[in-house]
Design brief:
Low-confidence stretches: 1-27, 32-44
Number of strands: 12
Pfam families: NMT1 (PF09084)
Protein name: ABC-type nitrate/sulfonate/bicarbonate transport system substrate-binding protein
GO biological process, one term: thiamine biosynthetic process
Helix content: 25-40%
Organism: Paenibacillus amylolyticus
Structural class: alpha/beta
Radius of gyration: 19 Å
Distance between the termini: 36 Å
Keywords: Signal
CATH class of the largest domain: Alpha Beta
Order of helices and strands: EHEEHHEHEHEEEHEHEHEEHHHHH
Mean pLDDT: 89
CATH topology of the largest domain: D-Maltodextrin-Binding Protein, domain 2
Oligomer: single chain
Number of domains: 2
Amino acid sequence: MRWRKMIGLLLLCVTLIAITACGSKEAGPAQSNGDTNTENSSEGDNAALRDVKVVLDWTPNTNHTGLYAAVDQGFYEAEGLNVEIVQPGAGGADTMVASNEVPFGVSYQESVTQARTQGVPLVSIAAVIQHNTSGFAAPTDRNIKSPKDFEGKTYGGWGSPVEEAVMQSIMEGEGADVSKVKNINMGDADFFTAVKRDIDFAWIFYAWTGIEAELRGEPIDMLYVKDYSEALDYYTPVLVTNETTIQNDPELVKAFMKATSEGYQYAIDHPEDAANILIKAVPDLDKDLVLASQKWLSPKYTDDAPRWGEQKQEVWQNYTDWMYSKKLLDEQIDVSKAYTNDFLPQ
């Protein structure tokens, strides 16, 4: 499954949200999984509860388990909320949240940063995972053991300037030349199809595609981008809302985040049970993959942070400075306005 397409196209769409919707998924590392249907998350008589939607960034996976656990375990209901988990429309999750179509969504630090340079008031309210679990992956027979080994190889991506900038950053540290990498667009092909067809490596999230490679018995070499640059250890994914919701309905944000935090803590404490909740909600998912992915990912939700969801200003500043240095931003942003920890439970 391809998580996100070209960031530039997304942001063009986002700037038009006040007038109309536009079409694009969000750009980023690839995952390998087929589309699934949107899952409603609540049943029965909820007349006394407030209906709330949260939109995913892509099809359901273990990045989202805490949301499904919060529904299944009644954490949202305890806060007076009837939460429905939905998939993004044509304009993408960021567009839906920024335009007040839905109050909450799943996004990425890079998307929020880009959006705010365009005056789009997205705000990150929690880091789903503390450290970046994405990186460049290749079948072991390609002998890609370091960024220098990218030279002379073919990279499959989605055509975003971010990809080459990241690749350039980690290659330069190894004295390598990014111009010696051939770049092609993978289109709709997943990682496993593409590496058998016409590419040597791609950018993936290990928690999904890397785990799937293990289950397939197709070993890969994984080069995590955070291991080569502190600036690239950014938050991906994050939960977002918009400034209007924060200003006009802070109690809603507080209630949503309390229950969501409980959902992710449940997934941390009970990975197998949480995996089964996700499988029950989205039966089209591969059960073995969900279970293995959840066991790998659950400890990484909080990792070395004092609580789930915590965000650090230095992480936001480091990545913003890096994006600006690579000319991926037209201007710097005030990172203190791009995220908040204020709605995380103490």
